[in-house]
């Protein structure tokens, strides 16, 4: 599902050159759930950005579902992201002025999905994360754990093949973190979603199928 071949990412300013990723070779099979670990600044988030087609490598090849997308137009890449990849962020990134239902619906507004079908998909996603009773509430009326579950519902509402989660439990207490992890494991087991999760928590990493470790932009395990 995901393949990186000799991927390097270098950020340059006038006086500084920073190697964020250095010759990464990584394959993630369809239906795998892997965790990515390493100290801050080791390249974990850069890896997710490249896999999620939010950024291009400085060199190397990236294929998603057997296809190389970096030569495509921005419009085509945006469509692939919207239909194939679901993003979950540490900071939720919910729109405070929108209800839970409206937040979850946002990705579908960029597709040609009819109103009736949107309503059905949104209701299913919200129910899957256990928040049907909060569907009309706004982010300010929710706990941190509930906000993250809304973010997960938004990420899965379009039934993406790949879910990229960047520290999805980083702002949560242990109980809410465990609930989020249970949801991710369910999405992997029941929907067959391929999941790449960045985490600092060894206990959470142990609940995934495989752990990849980074240090100074290099894959060390």
Number of helical elements? 7
> What is the CATH topology assignment?
Rossmann fold
Q: What is the C-alpha radius of gyration, as a whole number of Å?
A: 17 Å
CATH architecture classification: 3-Layer(aba) Sandwich
**Termini separation:** 20 Å
Stretches with pLDDT under 50, minimum 5 residues: none
CATH class assignment: Alpha Beta
Share of β-strand residues: 25-35%
- From the spread of the alpha carbons, the general shape counts as globular
Element layout with pairings:
Blueprint (H helix, E strand, L loop, with lengths): L1 E11 L4 E12 L4 E5 L6 H8 L7 E6 L2 E2 L5 H11 E5 L10 H10 L5 H14 L15 H13 L5 E5 L7 H18 L2 E5 L3 H4 L4 E6 L2 E2 L2
Parallel strand pairs: 3-8, 3-9, 6-7, 7-8
Antiparallel strand pairs: 1-2, 1-4, 4-5, 9-10
Helix pairs in contact: 3-4, 3-5, 4-5, 5-6
Q: Can you describe this structure?
A:
The protein has 221 residues and is α/β, with parallel strands linked by helices. It has a single domain (29-56, 69-219), classed as 3-Layer(aba) Sandwich (Rossmann fold), CATH 3.40.50. It has 7 helices and 10 strands. The strands form 2 sheets. A 6-stranded mixed beta sheet has the order 6-7-8-3-9-10. Strands 2-1-4-5 form a 4-stranded antiparallel beta sheet, covered by helices on one side. Strand 1 (2-12) and strand 2 (17-28) form a beta hairpin. The longest helix has 18 residues, at 174-191. It is globular and about 50 Å long. It starts with a strand and ends with a strand. The relative contact order is 0.20.
Summarize this structure as a short list of keywords or feature phrases.
single chain, 221 residues, alpha/beta, Rossmann fold, six-stranded mixed beta sheet, 10 strands, 35% helix, 27% strand, globular
């Amino acid at each position: 599902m995901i393949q990186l071949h000799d991927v390097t990412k270098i950020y340059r300013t006038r006086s500084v050159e920073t190697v964020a990723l250095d010759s990464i070779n990584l394959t993630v099979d369809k239906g795998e759930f892997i965790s990515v670990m390493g100290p801050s600044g080791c390249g974990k988030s850069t890896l997710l950005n490249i896999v999620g087609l939010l950024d291009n490598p400085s060199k190397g090849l990236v294929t998603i579902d057997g296809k190389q997308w970096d030569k495509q137009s921005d419009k085509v890449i945006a469509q692939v992201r919207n239909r194939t990849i679901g993003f979950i962020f540490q900071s939720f990134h919910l729109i405070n002025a929108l209800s839970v239902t409206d937040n979850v619906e946002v990705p579908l507004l960029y597709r040609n999905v009819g109103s009736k079908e949107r309503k059905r998909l949104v209701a299913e996603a919200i129910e899957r994360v256990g928040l049907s009773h909060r569907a009309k509430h706004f982010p300010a009326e929710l706990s941190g754990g509930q906000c993250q579950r809304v973010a997960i519902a938004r990420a899965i509402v379009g039934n993406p093949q790949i879910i990229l989660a960047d520290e999805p439990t980083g702002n949560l207490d242990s109980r809410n973190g465990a609930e989020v992890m249970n949801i991710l494991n369910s999405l992997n087991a029941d929907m067959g979603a391929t999941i790449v999760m960045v985490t600092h928590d060894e206990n959470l990493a142990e609940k995934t199928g495989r752990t990849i470790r980074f240090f100074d932009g290099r894959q060390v395990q």
